[in-house]
Every structure is written in C-alpha cells, then in structure tokens.
Amino acid sequence: MEKLSIEAIIKKIKNEDCFHAVSDDYALTLKIDSYVHYVCSAIHDGHQFRTELWDNCLHSAYERWYEEDPATKAMIESHPIVVAGCDSRFEYDLNRPPEEAVFETAWGKQLWKQPLPIPMKAKSLKKHANFYRVVSALIQKIEEKHNCCIVFDMHSYNWKRWNREVPTWNLGTSNIDNKRFGFLVESWRKRLSQIQFPNKTLQTANINDTFQGNGYFLKYITQNFKNTLVLATEIAKVYGDEYQQIIYPEVVDAIANQLKVSIPEQATEFLKHISK
C-alpha cells in the first residue's frame, strides 16, 4: 500500500490504474485490483481519533468504539474495489452531510467539553470533503466503463440495546429507486439470510426494520449517479460482544468467506438486469 495525496488518488482513478493506497492524511484507504462494476465500502470501520481532540472529548474510547462499525472492512477486503474510512465517526461522520458531520452531541451525550475550535472543525470537514471527491471520481469512472455500478455499503449496529427482537441483517432502502431495483434488494436479502454463523446465531434478514437507509453516503451517490445502486447493508454485532469490546475473528472470517461468493453473485445479477 502506498501513501498518496487525494489528487494523486483521483488521477490514478481517472487513468484507470490499479493500486492500493492510503490518503496522505491517513483518513481513507482505497484498493482497486480491477475496475469491476461493483464497489465495497466500510465508511465507519475507522477508530482513529486525533490526539489534539482527546482532552476536549467527553466520550471514552470505548463509547466511540461502541458506535463505530468495527471489522466491517475485514468482511469485504477480499473484493476488487474497497474504500474505507480510517477515522472515527466521532471526529466526522461520513454518513452525515457536511453541515452535520462534526457532532456537538453524540447519542444523547455532549461530545466536547468546550465548543470545538473552528480550525479543528475545518480540518475534519476537509477530510470529509476529500473522501467524497474520491468517491465521486470512483463511481464516475465505473459508470463510464460499465454504464452502471452497484455499491455494497457495509455497516453494523448494536443489537443488544434494542428492547425487541431485531434482524441479523437489515437493508435500508427508503432512498433508492425501489420500482427499478426492488427485486434486487429482495434477492440480496435472501442471499444474506443464507449466511451461516459458526456461533449458531439465529439468522434473519429484513428490509427497513432497524434502519431505513437514510445515510448521506447512499444519498450522495444515488442523487449524483443515476445508474448506481447502493445497498445499505447493516449486520447486527453478533460477530462480537458490544458490551465487552470483543470481536470474534472466527465469525468475521466466516462472514467474509461467504460474502466472497454472495457479493459477486449479487453484482452479476445486477449487471444482467441493467444490461437488458
């Protein structure tokens, strides 16, 4: 993996180069092994939190980890195109629009002891903007090459805090074209429901149950690229213990190995549908 500026990353995408890179501010990673018609993303995988923010932050490292999506990049990293965030969503949230991306409160608790200084907020917002510059260049290149793109937008959520039964997998679809892509959502739901877990987790996959797909990442791509489908895919944190801050690597590996099969199958089905 090479360290590259945002401008160099975008240039490589425009030239259709294959590469593995981390941005020179260490805010994102991008791997492109080939310019296939599908992208995997893990925008909340990151846990980095700038040291200059530590003393002013009221949330502990565990509280931040609890609301992040640990191991979601590991579940998809074998695929040809993978983009991931490196920073904690408590610095800036890539799934919120710029005006809401730097929190003042987070999950009902004040985030900062003192209001965040404007230069520190600007530094975070620049990384947010740069991420979307890269995403825009990437999706544009794939649509130019294939006339379409499908994005597997991977997230996780804390299932133990719900006071009702919740699904292992949730697909959020409220901001996509369901008339055009609804049957593809259903086929993805069925594929997810067939994934087996080594810890005998009862497997369910629902649509718009715990979350409805209101994230900025999905909205940004959907609004700017008319032939790109974003599948906002949330897994309950059954691959770890959200209260003990433990990840079960054997469960993560099992998920990753099965997604090696199911993601390309879904991408192929999507391409056949678009090509008609």
UniProtKB/TrEMBL annotation:
Protein species of origin = Bizionia echini
Which superkingdom heads the taxonomic lineage of this protein's source?
A: Bacteria
High-level lineage: Bacteria, Pseudomonadati, Bacteroidota, Flavobacteriia, Flavobacteriales
Cited InterPro entries: N-FG_amidohydro
User: Would the keyword Hydrolase turn up in this protein's UniProt record?
Assistant: yes
A GO MF label: hydrolase activity
Keyword list (alphabetical) reads: Hydrolase
Annotated protein name in UniProt: N-formylglutamate amidohydrolase
One Pfam family per UniProt: FGase
